[in-house]
Amino acid sequence: MSLSSPPPILSVRPSRALVDEAFEVLVENLPPVSPFTLRSLHHSEDGDDWEAYGHYFSDHSGRVSVSEDLSFGGTYSGMEPMGLIWSLRPVPGSRTGLRLRKKDVTTPMLITISLYNGHEDFRDNSPLVSMVTERWYMGPGIQRIEITDGGLRGGLFIPPGPGPFPGILDLWGGGGGLLEYRSALLASRGYICLALEYFKTGQMKSTDLSFEYFEKAYHVLKDHPQVIPDRVGIISLCLGTIVTLSLVVESAEIKPSCVVCISNMITKSPGKTLSGFHRSIPSKFNKIRVDENNHQIWRDVGLALLKEPSMKVDVAKINCPLMLVNGCDDQNWCAVETADDISKTMNAAGKGHLLTRVDYPDTGHLIEPPFSPHCVAGNFFVYSSNEKVIQRYGGKTKPHSDAQDDSWRKILSFLRHHLYCSHKAKM
To answer: Acyl-CoA thioester hydrolase/bile acid-CoA amino acid N-acetyltransferase domain: which residues (predicted)?
Structure first.
């Protein structure tokens, strides 16, 4: 660019938004029909740098619009308004097996959008212009309350206003720890959500939680003065779906209005304890395969368990609306085959009308809120062998991202119908 030319103007609108909201990136005052690279950069809470970038050509008026123009290469290609977010990946030379997850949801994800000259070696050059955007899981006015009642460990998220609101119990998977970002985002959409930690990361071996722990959490949520007591749902992923389906079938205390299971499992947990499942699953570890990168593929473990009727939750007893969200390239678990089994059982029991199912081609295991970076393989602690491995989760980045966006809209619609609309119809 000439020293006498006006500086480029970069705008991101809105510059502050919830993570499930799209933005528009526009650059003006550029030389016409010239190559430029737009790059996003995020420094994670774990200390790692993540980037995404697209190669563009300015139009005849000297503009680049990410929403309207094609990227001709980079971490994404084509017309992708949110490609600078969903295609984020660790910068070259980063540690292996990384997964980008927000830990402190009371602060935003800060993402720097920068413009560079040309398409080659842009990292070695200084940006022409940059600006910082904020991506929030917690909307304005959301309260976060730490939950420790009766030994529980969780975070309760309450929307602004007097309510009352429907409630949602949020259960994550086998990685452990307290994960709050989905709950914070659901609270931003009008639900009181309880994100529940049910084992510490890497400590499942010493955990022997009974289902009373989850029943207690359910009642803490249901009995909250701002929660509509007969409008409580559960959302879960992977290991959390075992807990969810077991509770719905076996617990007289838990009668949810609806349930969402993502990357579902229906293996029983013997003795109504969480560790019962984890004592039985190693018997199938001989089914674990590895890919060319020595990443572990666990889906055959699930297939082996699925062939044993005595190891399956009796989903014929489910009496509430159930939504199953599955990735057809899930390499961590046999989610689609499990959904087939659930569908067959519920249809045979005359309960097929309660089931909503969505399957996504080329989509992996970790189906998260919209624009979350795709994790095709990630670090995982195997409690039984006390070792850290890299598990392959599967999926292709673009289809997986599309599935996260579409499934989130469908999940919100499902929850709205069963936790809001149905309730209003009874008023």
So the answer is: 20-148
